[in-house]
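Pasting as-is:
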Amino acid sequence: MKNEFDKFRPPKGKRDYFESDLIQRELMESLFFGVARSFGFQRIETPTFEDLLNVLLI
């Protein structure tokens, strides 16, 4: 019998990040955002999306 989570497929282009990856990523983001702000750019965040079929596990 298959587990209901066997049906889950992450959307293309998305992946999970673990702590070791996040430390380096946060450092790079911090540097990038600092430089962008120095040129007058402002940060925005857009909504997170979910694939409805994955959320409902259909």
